[in-house]
Amino acid sequence: MNFSDWEWSGTGRTDRSRFRVTSAQFFVGSFVFMVLSGTLGLLVLPGLYTGPRLGLVDALFTAASAVCVTGLTVVDTATYFSAFGQAWLATLIQFGGIGILTLTTLVIIGLGRRVSLDLERAGGGHTTVLSHVSQRSLLAAVVRLTVAIELVGASALWLLWRERLGDVGAIWPAVFHSISAFCNAGFSIFTNSLMDFRSAPLTLVTMSALIVLGGLGFLVLVDVGDRLRGTDRRRLALHSKVVLWSSVVLLISGTMAFLVFESPFDLRELGLPDQIVNAWFMSTTARTAGFHTVDYSTASNGSILLTLALMLIGGAPGSTAGGLKTTSVVLLFLMLWSRLAGRAHTSVFGRTIPRHTLERAAGVVIAGLLVVAVSVFLLLVLELPEHGELNRTHLVEMVFEAHSAFGTVGLSMGATPKLTEGGRLLVTLLMFVGRVGPLAFAVSLVNRRRRTREEYRFAQEDVVVG
Asked: Which residues of 230-247 are buried (b: 16+ CB within 10 A; e: fewer)?
């Protein structure tokens, strides 16, 4: 991922001597600002709680979980927060879901200023995928799509829940869950998430649809929408094709596997139609949503392993999802397949993937795996079992927690409320890195200066591989 310097001064003119901010720093800094603002609100705003106010660490954890659309919580959102407090969380989720960069870019465009190409790439590479769509049109479409989809989702959920919760009582839960589902946040104002809806297939299908749409990404939704409306007769962008096909494969294969793993266990009391819908929901939510209809602390080993894999993969770039991203994982598999087939180039759908894109995908995957591995080790150090007891379940819980935080999923085996302050701060950082991306986070910490001399390389020498 390439980030160049984005220079800005108080007068709106470039001034290298006064102020220099790289695109990655601007991108990451935007999320830092939102997390800190959310934390401050949780600490000082009145009327947010039904009981005692959250402490600093827990407020930071909760704000980061909301802005990074993760869904991990140290308290019960349904009972600990008042309606105003839940509305504050929904606001943080909405801003985090759309993306601070998108909102800031809208402001800059509104002021008549131009945003650099590298700044766009920091937020998802709009121009590299939909080069025919103007900056203003794309960003306006993001806002329109978000509002429209969430309104339709909220209306559908209200119709489904009005009999259970009442005409008035169903309004706020429908709105909150529509926002949380489309933003792939996983926050619920029901104490046991969606466990009470295991036998309500229409609710699970509606929530799944919102989660999938949010996880596909705005680039894909705009691209598909243009084709369906006939406003653009060009073929779907390669990015859209890869995202759509990989999503279909992951959803269907995940559903079949969860059905096999859980039908003898957590889903055994349900009929076959409900088992299929719940397995579909498990496959959908595991890739970054965080709602649950099963207790993962009692799930089968196969389901836990599959959930770990899906959490790590995540959703599409430019979406409300986290993880390594489907395109990165697919490109690595395609590159491996090409090498095994003896082909020098990696191709898909009649197009050759540029080498620098493959290298970027490999960098994203390697960086993500390293972040998760180090985080698991640190969690095991910080969260030692009491009295030094050997507990293999504790290892699984920490591995699950780290994958869930990095993938901004929000699923837990019950370990989140039991984390120490050190563990909560580590998980907070992991959620943040998972949301902005490990490469963007790393690059933002480096103050790179433009090189005035030409690039050079050392003499080549081979290394044995494999």
From this structure: eebeeebbbbbbbbbebb
Task: Fill in the amino acid letter for 207.
Answer: M
Judge whether 77 and 50 are in contact, CB under 8 Å.
no
Between CA 131 and CA 21 the distance in angstroms is 26
Q: What pairing do the DSSP bridges indicate for beta strands 347-348 and 351-352?
A: antiparallel
Nearest CA to 286 among 211, 393, 192, 221? 211
Burial of 263 (0-12, 13-18, 19+ CB in 10 A): middle
Is 145 in contact with 224 (CB distance < 8 Å)?
A: no
Return the number of other C-beta atoms located less than 10 Å from residue 348's C-beta: 16
Q: Is the pLDDT of residue 122 over 50?
A: no
Sketch the domain layout of the chain as residue ranges: 5-444
Please count the CA atoms within 13 angstroms of the CA of 336 that sit on its side-chain side: 9
Cα separation, 53 vs 46, in Å, equals: 9
Distance in angstroms (rounded) separating the CA atoms of residues 68 and 183: 10
Q: Collapsing DSSP states into helix, strand and coil, what is residue 6? A: strand
Would you say 101 and 125 are in contact if contact means Cβ atoms under 8 Å apart? no
Q: Are 314 and 407 in contact (CB under 8 A)?
A: yes
* pTM (2 d.p.): 0.88
Output Rg (C-alpha) for the chain, integer angstroms.
22
Q: What is the DSSP letter of 316?
A: -
| pLDDT the model gives residue 85 | 97
Outline where 126-237 has alpha helix (H).
Answer: 126-129, 135-165, 171-182, 201-216, 218-229
